[in-house]
Amino acid sequence: YASAIKRGVSNHLDYRYGNLQPQGDWKPVDPLPDRLTLGKRLLSTIQKEELSTETAKENIDVIKSCCSALDNIESQNILTNLIKTYFDLLFTTPEEDHDDFVTQGLNTPLGVLTSCTMILINRALKNNHNVDITLQNIARSLSQDEHCHIKSRILNFLAYTIYEAPEFGWRIFDSIIHNINPKLWEHTERIL
Question: How far is residue 175's CA from residue 16's CA, in Å, rounded to a whole number?
């Protein structure tokens, strides 16, 4: 029951602030709940849960929703710590690449966490804040990963990163193309 509520609130935030498109004529009911309150409660809930691979996918979806909806510094710090925690939990068993690695990156827990990392980095840059060193280290580590679905998620966000922080962005790009899989070259075109 609690899991269904968590998923529902997470989806609500994704429909309102993220990139989910509702089917049909869905519109949120007025009065709209405060996104900051909803997001903070979701984050508080997953922080209190025992860390496990069984709940990881659901909690990573919550993190993704909150990355889209929450933009205050306190929430960004909590999100950064949760991203690091789940990377540490999941990175020991990365998924193998499939033929459609772009879709795989959008739908696997590590791919979603990679997107979250880049969303937070780009938001910090957009708001003229320093990028958290933890996020920088995660991005560097991911850029050196051998899996196409991870690197494709970084490349999806990297043009903006390079625009706002050229030195950092080009270092990430350089790490990605070092020993690059030929399948990834087409994803570098918008950056070059």
Answer: 35
Within 10 angstroms of residue 145's Cβ, the number of other Cβ atoms is: 17
Q: What is the pTM of this model?
A: 0.87
58 and 51 Cβ atoms separated by less than 8 Å: no
Give the span between the Cα atoms of 130 and 126, in whole angstroms.
Answer: 10
Which residues fall within 8 angstroms of residue 93, CB to CB, at 6 or more apart?
none
Alpha-carbon gap, residue 147 to 183, rounded angstroms:
11
pLDDT digits (tens, 9 = 90+) for 110-132: 888 999 999 999 999 999 988 99
Residue 172 has which token pair?
């990430």
Residues 144, 146: Cα–Cα separation, whole Å: 6
Q: What is the pLDDT of residues 36-57, one digit of tens each?
A: 889 999 999 999 988 888 888 8
CA of 173: how far to CAs of 5, 21, 110, 138, 140, in Å? 39, 31, 19, 14, 9
- The C-alpha atoms of residue 108 and residue 98 are separated, in whole angstroms, by 11
CB 188 within 8 A of CB 156: no
